[in-house]
Design goal:
This protein is an alpha/beta fold and 339 residues long. It folds into 2 domains: 65 residues, Alpha-Beta Plaits, CATH 3.30.70.1140; 250 residues, TIM Barrel (Alpha-Beta Barrel). It has 11 helices and 14 strands. The longest helix has 17 residues.
Length: 339
Amino acid sequence: MLIVVMKPRVMVKDMGAVLKKIEDMGYQPHISRSGERNLIGIIGEGNEEKIKDSLSVLEGVEQIVPLSQPFKLASREFHPEDSTINLGPVVIGGEEVVVMAGPCAVESREQLLEAAEAVKEAGAKILRGGAFKPRTSPYSFQGLGEKGLEYLAEARERTGLLIVTEVMSTGDITLVARYADIMQVGARNMQNYALLQELGKARHPILLKRGMMSSVEELLMSAEYILSNGNPRVILCERGIRTFEKMTRNTLDISAVPLIKNLCHLPMIVDPSHATGKWELVAPVSKAAVAAGADGLIIEVHSHPEEALSDGPQSLKPEVFKKLMEELKKVAAAVGRKL
């Protein structure tokens, strides 16, 4: 991939001429900004010297440089400024640390509405809840499907909370998009490239979770599938990786937060619930994530975790979640953020 660096305050007609030339050569242009300059990324295989020769003579072109990272559109080389995901009153990737909270799975209308009211009162901005649940065992609770999505929509109507919920297959995208504000790609689907490509054609923000055995580069390359298919609204999520350690469900890669923030312009959140698998570890890990620079958290909350049909041991009771939210305000303030 090459980046065309345009001159400061380039004229609209000159910008348009460069974009047209790129398309006429059979490539896909992607526009970004760095200060007063427009950057145009060129996607596609071809003779780089020929591309340079064809574009360097056009008005408004300052220089043409190669991009070193294998993840192109996600790279800070192409997009130096932080990207934000704007969802009306909620902005992910800005000054505020955004908390998403709710049950792992939507089990019933009553259970979900109770959880939604509790997390709203505590200060969460987005309600999480799985209507479709990919489980290790085929005999485990798999979710309520569309009925669960309907309950989520009702909870949004009653509380004003936005909704994030998982989409598992290409055939479910249209259905989930009718109800969700953010569509989540779970860890098991991080490298489901057919799904990622279709989500790249969607307009919804996509929450992309790191696979349990995936490297940082593999996570960013998965994001590239969504970005390169036209959807720039991607939120990355560190949720722990599988290591030799058995005392926790997974091992939270806390260093992935500042590492990805250095490499990539996309918002980055952390899932302390799946990372640890133990409710008593969620609070300290949440604080560490905010201190490390996370743009948000996604936390499991259940009024009766001992009765939960999915991931009860890692779910916080509402009163514990409320206490954590108060403590997180202090951590956020210490690193120049707010909650």
